[in-house]
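Retro notes (design track)

What went well: tokenization of the new backbones is finally stable.
What didn't: we kept losing track of which sequence belonged to which structure.
Fix going forward: every design gets posted as structure first, then sequence, in one message. First example under the new rule, 273 residues:
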């Protein structure tokens, strides 16, 4: 049996520079990953099949059209005519700005890498599944440009092990409408530097349009910022927001406070990879 964690993706910064002629958007984003997420396991089977369970499994409309199934189709992974039976425990909320589906696909790529190795064109195969998938295959801090698929290393990861709290108000936010609501104003490029420096100097240009569509995001951000993190921001197109803390004690206190004040919100504590 192969097992893998689909690490939750967060965008420490997300700068939208322009809308492209092909309808996509030119981005600069700082990817980071939390040491927790969905859980996958794969065993040999006569044919590929996918079983889903967990808190958010019911949010997957079509398990057989799921990105995990598409990732299996995109890669050689069985012996001869055999396939894989994949078990997916869906721990991350769906349509939440955490790259949940992309992270699941990235986990499949890593399992295939361990079992058989990846083809040379793995990056192109991953990009065809979604803009976040190549970064999720790597699952380590990197800078994404273009539509997010062109990846570069960060000069220094000085946030490894940083305590992080993720909070989602259990409100799904589809990506398309948020990008459509962006005001098309270029607010400038990301700065260079270490992971922490880029994150602190950055922003998320989708925060305001996401809040306009889902006002509770502003409440989540206000609640997180009231716990004295050194950075709190929305991830991706929302609705999940994250807060970074200087110590594990500060994280624990913040998580307890959020749970007491907003028992209906989903939260996850972890560390940055």
């Amino acid at each position: 049996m192969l097992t893998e964690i689909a690490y939750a993706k967060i965008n420490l910064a997300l700068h939208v520079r322009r809308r492209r002629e092909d309808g996509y958007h030119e981005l600069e984003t700082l990817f980071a990953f939390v040491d927790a997420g969905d859980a996958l396991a794969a065993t040999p089977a006569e044919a590929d099949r996918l079983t889903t369970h967990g808190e958010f499994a019911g949010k997957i409309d079509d398990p057989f059209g799921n990105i995990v199934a598409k990732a299996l189709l995109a890669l050689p992974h069985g012996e001869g005519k055999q396939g894989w039976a994949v078990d997916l425990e869906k721990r991350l909320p769906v349509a939440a700005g955490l790259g949940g589906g992309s992270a699941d696909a990235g986990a499949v790529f890593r399992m295939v890498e361990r079992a058989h190795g990846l083809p040379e064109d793995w990056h192109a195969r991953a990009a065809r599944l979604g803009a976040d998938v190549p970064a999720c295959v790597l699952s380590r801090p990197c800078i994404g440009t273009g539509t997010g698929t062109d990846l570069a290393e960060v000069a220094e990861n000085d946030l490894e092990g940083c305590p992080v709290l993720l909070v989602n108000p259990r409100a799904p936010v589809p990506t398309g409408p948020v990008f459509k609501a962006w005001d098309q104003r270029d607010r400038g490029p990301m700065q260079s530097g270490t992971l922490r420096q880029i994150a602190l100097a950055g922003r998320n240009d989708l925060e305001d349009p996401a809040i306009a569509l889902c006002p509770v995001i502003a409440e989540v951000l206000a609640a997180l910022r009231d716990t004295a993190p050194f950075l709190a921001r929305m991830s991706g197109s929302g609705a999940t927001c994250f807060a970074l803390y200087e110590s594990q004690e500060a994280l624990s206190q913040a998580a307890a406070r959020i749970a007491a004040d907003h028992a209906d919100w989903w939260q996850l504590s972890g560390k940055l990879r």
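Added context from the reviewer: Residues 100-116 form the longest helix (17 residues).
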